[in-house]
Amino acid sequence: MSKLSIGIDIGGHYIKAALIEEYKFLRRWEEPTSEGRTIEGVTEQLKRIAGELEPPGYTLSVGIGMPGFLDLQREHLVLSPNFPDWKGLPLKTLLEDRLKRKVMIENDANCYALGEQLAGLAKGLKDFVVLTLGTGIGGGIVVDGRLFKGAHGFAGEPGHMALGETELCGCGCYGHLEAISGTDAMERKAGQIGLPEDMKILWARKDEPAIAEIIMPSLQTMAKAIASITHLFDPEMIILGGGFSRAEGLLSILEPMALKYLVPHFRDIFNLKISLLGNDAAMLGAASLADELN
Fold first, then answer.
1. Whole-model pTM?
2. Average of pLDDT values for 82-105?
3. pLDDT, tens only, 147-167
4. Nearest to 270 by CA among 240, 234, 241, 242
5. Residue-range domains of the chain with CATH
């Protein structure tokens, strides 16, 4: 990417954005997502943020990473558990109309994978998987150097792997990975027994028996998912991103758990890493999509 462009990462709690040129972050912006997460409130935020970031006299294209399922053409939001009222919206057209500029939309974890491919741990790799760990669990899969989107555009949703039975997921199904191992799920379980509903506090106290009974089974399920992804895709690397990936000591717990579930010859090639780009990866990936429009 060589031109000025804006990359935006929309999350359930925060919107992060940046003005980027040649992988350099010239300006940054972060603020809480509009209360109620309505399309009207969020689009007004995006319009204002884009205007704040771009230099005077410019109308820059915007790349937006969005949690949820997008159609293959990346025009409609099919479903987003974090934004349930947005279901079925012609999101690309709607955003271009309200922001008065060209817009590219992509799944947020796919944007993360693109960012890693451009300037992160995956630079030079052809086959890798990104897992974003946070309130939910997202994924971006790159095969032979290209994002793998599947036949209908929905591929790369590890958070909806069926690894349980009774846990209600935000998508309406039961037993999905993010309903077990997402930070929202762990915080809810903690609240049910009178513990703080704050993952930072819970992680700092993870050795306490009551908290360990919540966190360790959740990590065990996550490790099963990582092992399954390894068996399915044989990636050169699996990169963990998202807020929870930065929990101190997470890798030292999760890696041996996953190794236990791997076929022996996969153990020798297993390569699990924590992203060095952090939140910048998704914004960088989104901006690279916008760069194509400028």
1. 0.95
2. 96
3. 999 999 999 999 999 999 999
4. 234
5. 5-111+279-291 (3.30.420.40), 124-274 (3.30.420.40)
